[in-house]
Amino acid sequence: MTVTDTTPPARGQGKTFQVQICKVCGHVANPENTHDYRQYEQLEGLTQGGRIGTPEREGREFHMARMALDILGREGCEVLVYGAGRSFDNHHIAALPQVRQVAIADVMKLRDDAEFIDANLPAPRRFAVVVASEVIEHFPDPRRDFARLLDYVEPDGLLVCGTNVYDGGNLAKQPYLYVNGHTSYYSHESLTRLAAANGQLVDFRVPLVATGYGGPRKRYILFTRSDAVMAATARYFETRRYAPSESPTANLDLAAARQASATQPAAAVGAGVDGAD
Q1: Residue 35's pLDDT band (boundaries 50, 70, 90)?
Q2: Domain boundaries, the chain
Q3: CA distance 102 to 114
Q4: Model-level pTM?
Q5: C-alpha span between 237 and 239 (Å, rounded)
Q6: Which of 102, 163, 189, 209 could make a disulfide contact with 245, Cβ separation 3.0–4.6 Å?
Q7: Using CA atoms, how far apart are residues 19 and 183, in angstroms rounded to an integer?
């Protein structure tokens, strides 16, 4: 079917794509919306929004990793930030007492501040915690790409992904689909089926940022093979309404900081609620 973004001020405003919606699981495939991140030669070309960790400020990946570590309740964990881009959350994660080592994985090597793993190649080893924030929507082949991602996770480890989850609504009013490189828009059912196909249990949680600029469709999806880890996940959320994240107004906070420094335009990053990362 043909869909066009009609929701201003979305970043993809006016884009039109031919998408494929699975009649069984509701997954929306958008194969025309490819974006090859391997073309980048400098970090400055990558996204720097409110969710991105900086040397001074913790970003979303830090909160995802700390949550996973608290769920596991172990010491000496190795953590992988998959699709790190320009986020420096690996440094904040490395400072956590449960962490022995942090690595970053990506499709291009633009930094030397951590152990680098080439995501174009098979996983060389496994980690107790893997976080993939705003990554899985870039998967052109979810069956293949999820299997590769899960190869990084220890059998009793935890993978935490962050993305928007499609609720069956009007695609013309959901700009997340139109953001550059978003080739997969997952439904709850499609993610549940992908988990089962890979021998994984799955849990869905609403992060705090969904109450603000992240938009109401933002979710964390937690994957594990371990019944014990899934039970620990349930215990973790017995006293928490939302999963931890950056502030719901982090985009506005970043815009204000930019304005104060007078080094960049003051437009709010990701201000189009449901189109934001």
Answers
A1: confident
A2: 40-174+187-275
A3: 7
A4: 0.91
A5: 5
A6: 209
A7: 9
Amino acid at 108: M
- Of 147, 131, 121, residue with least CA distance to 72: 131
Q: Is the dihedral of CA 103, 106, 112, 116 positive or negative?
A: positive
Contacts for 117-126: CB closer than 8 Å, 24+ residues apart: 117/80, 119/82, 119/83, 120/38, 122/148, 122/151, 123/148, 123/151, 123/152, 125/152, 126/151, 126/152, 126/153, 126/154, 126/157
Band the pLDDT of 12: cuts 50, 70, 90. low
| CA–CA dist 190, 30 (Å, integer) | 15
User: Do you know the residue count of the chain?
Assistant: 277
Q: Cβ of 251: how many Cβ atoms within 10 Å?
A: 26
| pLDDT tier for residue 9 given thresholds of 50, 70 and 90 | low
Tell me the three-class secondary structure of 34-84, residue by residue: CCCHHHCCCHHHCCCCCCCCCCCCCCHHHHHHHHHHHHHCCCCEEEEEECC
40-174+187-275, CATH topology level: Rossmann fold (3.40.50)
Of all residues in the chain, the percent with pLDDT exceeding 70 is 92
Q: How far is CA 263 from CA 176, 235, 254, 259, 269, in A?
A: 28, 45, 12, 7, 15
- As a whole number of angstroms, the distance between CA 221 and CA 64 comes to 10
- Who contacts 184 (Cβ-Cβ below 8 Å, separation ≥6)? 27, 28, 29, 30, 136, 137, 138, 139, 140, 142
